[in-house]
Amino acid sequence: MNLKSFLKPYRGMRDYLPKDLYERRVVEEAIRELFKLYCYEEVETPTVEYYELLAAKVGEETRRTMYVFKDLAGRTLALRPEGTAPIVRLVTSKLKTAPKPLRLGYIWDFYRYDEPQRGRYRRFYQGGFELLGSSKPEADMEILSISIELMKKLKLEKFQVKLSDVGVLRGLMSSWGVDENVQNRVLSLADKKNYVEAIKELEATNLDEASISKIAGIFKLKGLNYKSILAEAKSIVGSCEHSIRSLENLEVILDYMREIYPEPEYILDLGFARGLEYYTGMIFEVFVENLDIALIGGGRYDKLVELYGGEPTPATGCAAGIDRLVLAMRVNNATPPPPPNRRVYLYILDGVPLSYGFKISTELRANGIPVEIEVMDRSLSKGLSTASRKNYPYALMLGLKEAEAGLVTLKNMFTGLQETLTLREALNRIRSSFNAS
RNA sequence: GCCGCCGUAACGUAGCCUGGUUAGCGUACAGGCCUGUGGAGCCUGGAGGCCGGGUUCAAAUCCCGGCGGCGGCCCCA
Q: CA(A187)–C1'(B23) in Å?
């Protein structure tokens, strides 16, 4: 059988070679650092969940792209397409009685059957922060802060935060008795900037023209000057309490966020909705210059825990696209250089018992020094050549002379100087140079 | 799901238009010159036309289909 055509990873999925993984780790470490600083506890759930659980509230677009399959017993399962559903599952089951608020973090892989393109893969990584139990703007502000801190940590200095509150439009439509499914369709069409179709959707519901033109008016409100946009929006929504509350909430959040983090550009866009159906309040996405794809996205989902059968639990959160952040760093030359090579190349010359070399390597490693032993039986000259091309700072050579005297020869590969020393001396020398660099 | 460009060793490429030597080169890899001393150089070696079909005496080259990569739309992370 010819396996050649199967040697490449499946479409939209990638192999991460050391360099790729290094870049990913940079982002992951920044996320874990924020878990710690913001007191989020990391959790992990299975990649595979029951289809029903995942499909419950994710929205048409995501449902269409789920990897769904049956197990041998006929159960319908799926690979998780996003992280909120599994988190909410935990919160409504094992963490049901955990003290609120709950701060949970994750770094998982996700799967969507999309057409791959720039920054979009069928298997991708997200780092998520979920804050459950609070309905207050300070919770949303915390999520926004985390997103902003992540961008800053990764040296992605010039970025935009686009935000809205789905309560503005939903509030209006609910007050007129518009069916929730229709609301979902309207929001999703608006999100696609397909305002014409969105309006048609509403016209089909026998809403009066005045109401429809209100919605159309909201769609258009977008820009940097949030004060005037909010004022305009308020005059449109009139006495609709839910919408007013959403607008006020946005105002509070924007006032404070601008004060705390003046750097990002905040774009208020009331026609922006996001594809996931579970959002109930503030929503946002983060963009960086030179790359027109959302790097981080999130929002408030106050009804989801209830939907899963738990106690009513307001919640908010965000997910950072790890592969996309890696890409953003590349595009903006923000990828940090990998750390210097701090290793020792150990060469055991002919005639020396291997045990002598292995004892020395064991001792070095016990002291935290990485050692690579020559295992190809190369000539010394070839070995040193390889070690130098790989940028090893030190070579340790063990010949009969050294073995008999219980010593080692340490060669500095940069200066070319070498000395025969006791293991202790060599170790100290290596260690101090590694600590210095 | 739609659209565009593109598929030659691990990587970068030449040849393709105008079908015809053993598919060439560079890097990388392995070895030798050089088994107690490296980075250079020289030499040697392994490794390749995405898959399937068609046209033809003959296909990397021309045609069709599939698959894949990159990018765009849409959506999202």
A: 58
